[in-house]
Design a protein that fits this description.
Length: 274
């Protein structure tokens, strides 16, 4: 019998696991996520030679003191990282039109606060490279809670078959074809990577950047938080936004009533006001 098939996630175990992921990452897991949690953690039970999810919970509690890295692996497994280049294209049109009006010499800093495997940050970088040139003083700062997914972002290498949303002209201009064992891959050009920095960051409690940003993207992550946690994250992020700067949540994420210093400019685009 396949060992993976013998594990059953009890109500009590599920509640303990969702309390832990909320404590560590702010993610609220509904009852509908039970099978997802069970499925994603099942292989860890086998790898660690544990006989139940309860034993895994005990192991995670010990890791909080021992620091073996299992808590981070737990977070990595339960955070969703689906993304693609130029996702929700209207935001990039807004960014492009706004950047066009700026002097090329103006310093521009943009934060991709839930950058996942890097497609969003590199899409922003391509937009600025097109409008301001690579020699202009702009910088992209990408963060995510998952160390595993950030390693992919830093590497900037993507399977050709999985690239979505990237216009052919930009692909040709800012990506390099892999050779030999990497012939099925494309890599972000070094000159674009130099304008993009990635760092692990927890939206709830990591020390905030000391710089102020002109634009902050935090898209398709707020939907995983309850209202109170959502408000906390928005207040933290917007404190790092310049007055007059723009905040982009996902198209399905409304910030209505969460922060009185944000005004709606157009659907899913907000501006920080005094």
């Amino acid at each position: 019998m396949n060992k993976l098939a013998i594990f059953q996630l009890s109500d009590q175990e599920f509640n303990k696991l969702r309390q832990l992921i909320h404590k560590k990452a702010g993610i609220s897991m509904s009852d509908a996520k039970r099978s997802l949690v069970a499925g994603r953690l099942r292989k860890r039970l086998v790898a660690l030679d544990l006989s139940s999810y309860d034993e895994y919970i005990t192991f995670l509690k010990k890791d909080e003191q021992a620091g073996t890295g299992e808590i981070q692996r737990f977070i990595d497994l339960l955070t969703t990282n689906e993304t693609w280049f130029f996702r929700e294209e209207r935001h990039f049109e807004f960014l492009k039109n706004h950047i066009k009006a700026l002097p090329i010499s103006k310093e521009v800093k943009i934060w991709s606060a839930a950058s996942s495997s890097g497609e969003e940050a590199y899409s922003i970088a391509m937009t600025l490279a097109e409008e301001m040139g690579l020699s202009s003083p702009w910088q992209i700062f990408g963060t995510d809670i998952s160390s595993e997914i950030l390693a992919k972002a830093k590497k900037g290498v993507y399977m050709k078959s999985k690239i979505r949303g990237l216009p052919p002209t930009l692909k040709k201009k800012y990506m390099l074809n892999g050779v030999r064992t990497y012939e099925d891959y494309l890599a972000i050009a070094p000159e674009l990577k130099r304008k993009t920095q990635f760092k692990q960051f927890n939206l709830f409690d990591s020390p905030l950047p000391t710089v102020k940003f002109d634009f902050i993207f935090c898209r398709n992550v707020l939907i995983y938080f309850n209202q109170e946690d959502k408000q906390k994250v928005i207040h933290r992020l917007v404190s790092c936004l310049k007055t007059g700067g723009y905040f982009f949540p996902g198209h399905s994420e409304s910030l209505h009533g969460l922060y009185d210093k944000l005004k709606t400019v157009e659907p899913s685009v907000y501006q920080k006001i005094n």
